[in-house]
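Structure tokens please, single chain.
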Amino acid sequence: MASVSRIFSRLLQRRSFSTASVSDLKSEMLAEEKHAAGTTKTWKLISIFVAAPGILFCVYNTVSKEMAHKAHHEKAEFKGYAHLRIRSKPFPWGDGNHTLFHNSHVNALPDGYEED
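Here you go.
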């Protein structure tokens, strides 16, 4: 917080002791606007030609690797261990046997995988 108050005090001090004319301030503002317009154009071009293709490449890479993984992935064998998938009371949604984020390809029910 001390740095914020220091910045404000410097700004007030600079304004109160400066003898810049109105035309000097206007020319400074115009120069700042010109610089801002150039900077805006630069960042817009960087976003379009660097960031967007980079994001598209990452999406393509992720999807292609996931599809390759999915092609050779096999469903795990069901093992009916007594301590897994215990249902002491039904879930409050659906038929009461499926978890909230149930995936029939990965998650087994107490009596085994669902048939596709």
